[in-house]
Design a protein that fits this description.
The structure is a homodimer. The first copy, chain A, has about 600 residues and is an alpha/beta fold. The first copy, chain A, contains 23 helices and 19 strands. A 7-stranded mixed sheet of chain A has the order 8-7-9-10-12-11-17, sandwiched between helices. A 5-stranded parallel sheet of chain A has the order 1-2-3-5-4, with helices on both faces. Chain A has a 5-stranded mixed sheet with strand order 14-16-15-18-19, with helices on both faces. In chain A, helix 21 (about 555-565) links the parallel strand 18 and strand 19. In chain A, helix 1 packs antiparallel against helix 10 (about 255-265) and helix 3 (about 35-45) packs across helix 9.
Chain lengths: ~600, ~600
Amino acid sequence: MTASLQDLARLVRYYILISTTEAGTGHPTSSLSAVDLTTALFFKYLKADLDRPEHPNNDRVIFSKGHAAPLLYALYGAAGVLTESELKSLRKLGSPLQGHPTPQFRYAEAATGSLGQGLSIGVGMALNGKNLDQLPYRTYVLLGDGEMAEGSVWEAAQIASYYKLDNLIAIVDVNRLGQSQETMYGHDTEAYSKRLAAFGWDVVTIDGHSLPEIEKAFEQCFAVNGRPKVIVAKTLKGAGVSFLADKAGWHGKALSAADLEKALKELGPVDTKLKGSVQKPEDKKPATTAPVDVPPPAYKKGDAVATRKAYGMALARLIDKYPNLVSIDAETKNSTFAEILMEKKKDHYFEMFIAEQNMIGVGVGFARRGKVPFASTFAAFLTRAYDQIRMAAVSEANLKCVGSHVGVSIGEDGPSQMGLEDIAMFRAVHGSTVLYPSDAVSTEYLVEELIKTSGIGYLRTSRPATPVLYDVGEKFPVGGSKVLRSSAKDRLTLVAAGVTLHESLKAADQLSKDGLAVRVIDCYSVKPIDAATLRKAAEETKLMMVVEDHWEEGGLGDAVLSALAEKPVASVVKVAVRIMPGSGKPEELVEQAGLSAAALIRKIKEILK
Amino acid sequence: MTASLQDLARLVRYYILISTTEAGTGHPTSSLSAVDLTTALFFKYLKADLDRPEHPNNDRVIFSKGHAAPLLYALYGAAGVLTESELKSLRKLGSPLQGHPTPQFRYAEAATGSLGQGLSIGVGMALNGKNLDQLPYRTYVLLGDGEMAEGSVWEAAQIASYYKLDNLIAIVDVNRLGQSQETMYGHDTEAYSKRLAAFGWDVVTIDGHSLPEIEKAFEQCFAVNGRPKVIVAKTLKGAGVSFLADKAGWHGKALSAADLEKALKELGPVDTKLKGSVQKPEDKKPATTAPVDVPPPAYKKGDAVATRKAYGMALARLIDKYPNLVSIDAETKNSTFAEILMEKKKDHYFEMFIAEQNMIGVGVGFARRGKVPFASTFAAFLTRAYDQIRMAAVSEANLKCVGSHVGVSIGEDGPSQMGLEDIAMFRAVHGSTVLYPSDAVSTEYLVEELIKTSGIGYLRTSRPATPVLYDVGEKFPVGGSKVLRSSAKDRLTLVAAGVTLHESLKAADQLSKDGLAVRVIDCYSVKPIDAATLRKAAEETKLMMVVEDHWEEGGLGDAVLSALAEKPVASVVKVAVRIMPGSGKPEELVEQAGLSAAALIRKIKEILK
């Protein structure tokens, strides 16, 4: 006999309550409000092979309200794939059942818990299903009412309707109560419904505790084509337990043993032998393209090519070899040169418009479905999505970010458009790879290195055209560097990348004519950094100058210092941007910031005199 | 005779065209689309004393579409306060007329240019006018259609309607064309109007080149009470010049000399002697409260008090001395303890709900109107607003950010809630002050230091209760530190702050019993850092260990290295979080990350053996 949804919902509530009380911490009430909605979803509509969470045909379920993790785990408990004792490991050291979902839990599609990010991830997964894999899976996203205040939700909402994602179904759990007070709209579900309708969604507004209404709502969602769908559900936080339901003061609090006993009594007997069954999905193969070899990049030494342009060239060249590449951009594709990929392979480019947070979330969605997304915009504007990038690392997403227009060398547009903190930002992302090419050849190879290196990757590209420095045969491994000027008589080492490398080379060549030997290192791999080469140079020259078009904090200078920290053998001078730049010609601003060859020569002569 | 709006609009167009062509760069077409809208605003409705841009009764005008800076400058040119030759300094080195508005231009209310931020700043200014200064000034915000894709705009929109800001008037310049392609909705003004109406705004939809429609729209706005108002205007990018108007391919391009000649011919003769007059505002005094002395903080050494709680206590204590203090929080006030201020002085607390980007923008608005806003949430979630924080520095805003729940020591909630990159992020903000107290007394004094230190300030607070270390009489100047353990025999210096300071003290005391002397420095001022004290310790002990509950990049460790860089005399070991933490008890996670006293003792013994 099939278990009834009512019985399963009661079991799910039981698991939520016992696991949070066992943990002594967690969010039982925020979980309880969505029990009926998700129990109906899981055990009547969801199609997923629970033995194969990675199955490409599985429907995807994202808990954007990540603090409802006890509910997520409880649902899998009710489905029979987690035991009661496993559920009771909630929030304990080493348990995959963390306070908020992470990939440590095998059924979590992504890490959530920083609110307002799940819908973007869902958009990425839905876009992947519809446009890339061409599979009929659906993507479900559970949102809390509180997180609807996050702008990123509305960025995702607009893109979902722009791309007509009718395979995306959102559920908004309007339980009225936030962390410290009532939400902006309380139980006024209409406030959400009319906003979502205005954003192009098909909306069903229901009582989120009425199973007949819930079932009708899902069925209405399945009947609509051409638009994303949302179920806006009025619920009670803590629903199912009278002394919790719709009561303030219970956010993020586990019940005491005594309260638990009271709650369980009220819940009535549950059958822990009960097992809800989840439908299996179809077994359709995703659409794929076979990889083919591609020619090496073609540039001549000395040609002037901006690294941002080489980035676009690289994507377009490499997509045949790596058919899982996807390019997304925040309406800057003619500046970042993502447009070169778009022009070559339109169906692997997705315009994300001026909404960087959602762009990164969509990238996480693609990455978690096996694609290699490159998300590009001005480096300055990637700061907009730092929370999403940080969370992408928790999601273990294989996401590549590309920031163009870095530093004062962009010129006239002024400080709002200058990426001056991007290295600091990406260095402090767990497990990140931070690469900063100085010419077209290294850019091309470093793009491929990023594809081959899993995790969060960052490529820093520059606006100005700079001369090609390397032969096409050169290798650029992650963690490497290139010593471009070197002699036994070097009295100082210049460490640089991007425009400052070119200034450093000019300075070294001029100083060499004046009889002063200076080593120059192209430090294209900022993280991991080539500690061995830097140490050797430090030991041999005893004096280093790290030159970067970035604020003085957290950038290449700090990375070099960090590499030398435990055995410091050289004095290290950081040359970086220290005053707020304005508008001006690139060369004027580079000079003003003390990053020009002339400025470096003056500084070196002063130090060495 | 008063100049007609038509003649003034023609003059404004002339200034836009000649200034951008003179610069050889810039955004003439994005400026031209909004000429008629803003000319009517400036010369018929705006109330501002142009001799006193700081006048508290002036209406505020914010160009959220900052790339329309040439229009902003041209309007002031037409108002007679900028000469043609000054206008021609656009985008030149040292000119206050930068590519995007910054406070270098005396009439700019804030820096813009990173899109989608202006409405939040406007919300801050409107809230200030209505609720704090209680002045009748209006705040006008010009937005582009492209930037309506930014979620932060919708965060601002919902808060404006929540606070019934009927002194706020937005103008959306729907010119259809973005940077690289058409916007999501092209000329479908209804798409914007219905969304804004759903978000609670009073909407007028018009032809943005019809002066009668524009005038009617403003007058309709003034007639509505209790809601923010928006004029959604269909315009042509490049309007007024036939070969530019509504044509793709002209984004961000100045006209050549030949094209300029053609354009000016078409524009017809302009009278550069024409001067538009702007109405003067009333002369009402802002509501103020006289400052009164407050008692010092009251804690006893050894009491267990979380620094986050001391932060709330400090705000509540100091508001009488600094009546310009304002507290804003992203629905975490019972965690950050901003609620202590709210409970004491409700009208100086503004709930910003779960929308961090808008919270920071609102803070910039308050700051630019002379308030000292403290914006608080979990440190992890401040990453959400990094772009706004970066831009706040360009705005020269006196904004204070407070991030609670830092590091692994928060425990069970897991990595999504742990601030592990906040120091890296805030160090790399221009002119920032980064403070990291370890006990309640220093927290209280550091809050006051932040009030007294202009610019972007950051206070890092912790979740766990920790013992009070200092007497209430102690001083904590910015740029200082405290040497808490010291002897002539010290063989190593531990540098720490927050929970790791307490672990370091325990480690040093234990090691001291074992006969091993270790110095301990409370490095409460991360930026600026106390280089002299660190250098002395480095020279005397030759070995330092920097211990921080933060990723290893960009944090306290890098700050210490940077302070010692030019004369490295000690080996510096960074002890920081290196693996992705999960859930667990705070003490388990601190131990797992190698930050516990026991772990430090093991590491120190190993190094010194």
